[in-house]
Write a structure and sequence with these properties.
With 271 residues, the chain is an alpha/beta fold. The protein is built from 11 helices and 10 strands. It has helices at 21-30, 52-68, 79-92, 105-111, 123-126, 129-138, 150-157, 164-179, 196-203, 213-227, 246-257, and strands at 11-15, 35-40, 73-75, 98-99, 116-121, 143-148, 184-187, 209-210, 237-242, 263-265. The strands form 2 sheets. Strands 4-3-1-2-9-10 form a 6-stranded parallel sheet, sandwiched between helices. The protein is globular, with a radius of gyration of 18 Å.
Length: 271
């Protein structure tokens, strides 16, 4: 039987790569006292073009790692991994708070005036039963245009955020959505907020572009409060681990978050 969760225990966070950094920043702002253990599964990135079974297998392996470290919660700021694995992980680890992420379809359906919403995500997210259920539940009266953008993850992982290649890819993805009168865009992958400059250059300053990092961090805070395991004092710390080469992760953290983190290798048994 698992011992009680303790306030000083770490929170496990993982993504296929650096996409979760866009949510990590929100978690750090809202929960500055917490000990965070972030795994970038870079040996297996990108998730979006892999099978759900593959993504589920990685999710189980990484969840087992966090449990081995005594984590009091697991946060999954990855839409593809949430869609493929969150229900199974909750069944595998009952009682452990496991927070998944969803595209901001509900607020988009509220904001749209044209009735047309564009969702930009990986193929895995858009093809999932979880996403289909989300659309049926939260946007039954909207026309939701789904645009897979698999190369965007690769661009961000390479550190290309605002280059001519990025702009060309963004323009290709957005043009058909805008031509069909989409007046709200949803970023359904946590890598995509890092392409905001190129996105804004294409759509201008006023069209809503929705992401869910802040809402995700609030949900994590609520679950910890319900469990009674918010860390009451102390200075927070975040350690980064990579299943691939740790060196690029260190450079990405400096470039994307403006911070220097302790960086190491995920133990081989979990890679």
């Amino acid at each position: 039987m698992r011992p009680p969760f303790l306030p000083h225990a770490p929170i496990g966070i993982y993504d296929s790569g650096v996409g979760g950094f866009s949510v990590l920043a929100d978690i750090q702002r809202l929960l500055p006292r917490e000990r965070l253990l972030y795994v970038a599964d870079t040996a297996h990135v990108p998730y979006g073009e892999k099978t759900p079974q593959y993504v589920l297998a990685r999710a189980c392996r990484l969840a087992d790692f966090f449990v081995s470290r005594g984590a009091k919660a697991i946060a999954i700021p990855c839409n593809t991994a949430t869609a493929a694995a969150v229900a199974q992980l909750r069944a595998r680890h009952p009682g452990l708070p496991i927070i998944g992420i969803e595209p901001a379809v509900k607020p988009a359906a509220t904001l749209t005036r044209s009735g047309v919403v564009g969702v930009l995500a990986t193929s895995g997210t858009l093809a999932s039963a979880r996403f289909a259920a989300l659309m049926a539940r939260e946007a039954p009266n909207a026309r939701v245009l789904m645009q897979p953008c698999p190369e965007w993850v690769t661009l961000v992982e390479r550190g290309e955020l605002d280059t001519p290649a990025v702009q060309a890819s963004v323009d290709r993805a957005l043009t058909p959505l805008l031509a069909q009168s989409a007046d709200v865009l949803v970023l359904g992958c946590t890598h995509f907020p890092f392409l905001q400059a190129a996105l804004r250059r294409r759509v201008g300053p006023d069209l809503p572009i929705l992401e869910t990092g802040a809402a995700f961090a609030r949900q994590l805070q609520r679950r910890l409060a319900e469990q009674g395991t918010l860390r009451p004092s102390g200075i927070g710390r975040c350690v980064l681990l990579a299943s691939g080469d740790p060196a690029p992760l260190r450079a990405h953290a400096r470039a994307l978050l403006g911070q220097a983190f302790p960086v190491g290798a995920l133990p081989a048994d979990y890679c």
